[in-house]
Amino acid sequence: MSHYFTNDDNLKSDIKKREAIINGEVFSFFTDNGVFSKQGLDFATKCLLETIDLTKISGNVLDFGCGYGPIGIYLSKKTNAHIDMLDINKRSMELARKNASLNNVNVNIFESNIYENVTKKYDFIVTNPPIRVGKEILYKILFGAKDYLTSDGELWLVINKNHGAKSLVRDLENVYKVDIVDKIKGFYIIRCKNN
């Protein structure tokens, strides 16, 4: 089976345009085979975006594992922050570029294996992390974020309680000041601040 964090050139493209409602506003996104949540905006990402306090989002923001772009595009549309978006999946990045244009936002999208090509620090890193990569890589993403956050930067993420949310929170507390901002139908919206 092909995963959304791998590049499978043999996977047939089948681009569809989907609508998503975020905080009462309609957004359109192109999706395709081989990308995360190709049926449309997933519930976890929607919860994350509807929970973040947009009035606090400013400066430089990184959408980590952007997929076809809903997090970065939404934050670009609703704030004055400078948005960078990264993914390892080339098809996702192509869709994210199309979707940025479709939604009239100016974002910077680049390819990176974890933080390999990240060259600056961010005020916010926002992610619906790829759980299926396994714990080792997941932890590299979430704990590695610390090195790419400003001194008072924040990592925002969403995770399902069935995917180990409680133990993850305990582990994150060793490195960050952690707040569970909300719990929505089993999804934890978590804010991690640099200690």
Descriptive report:
The protein is of the alpha/beta class and 195 residues long. It has one domain (42-194): Vaccinia Virus protein VP39 (Rossmann fold). It is 25% helix and 33% strand. It contains 5 helices and 9 strands; from the N terminus they run ββαβαβαββαβαββ. The chain has helices at residues 43-51, 70-78, 90-102, 135-144, 165-172, and strands at 16-22, 25-31, 60-64, 82-87, 108-111, 122-127, 149-160, 176-184, 187-194. It has a 7-stranded mixed beta sheet with strand order 5-4-3-6-7-9-8, sandwiched between helices. It is globular. The mean pLDDT is 92.
Keywords:
195 residues; alpha/beta; Rossmann fold; 25% helix; globular
Total domain units: 1
Q: What composes the largest sheet? A: 7 strands, mixed
- Uncertain stretches of 5 or more adjacent residues: none
How much of the polypeptide forms β-strand, as a percent range?
Answer: 25-35%
Structural class: alpha/beta
Q: Residue share in helices?
A: 25-40%
| Silhouette | globular
- The CATH homologous superfamily name equals Vaccinia Virus protein VP39
Do you know the CATH topology? Rossmann fold
CATH class: Alpha Beta
Distance between the termini: 40 Å
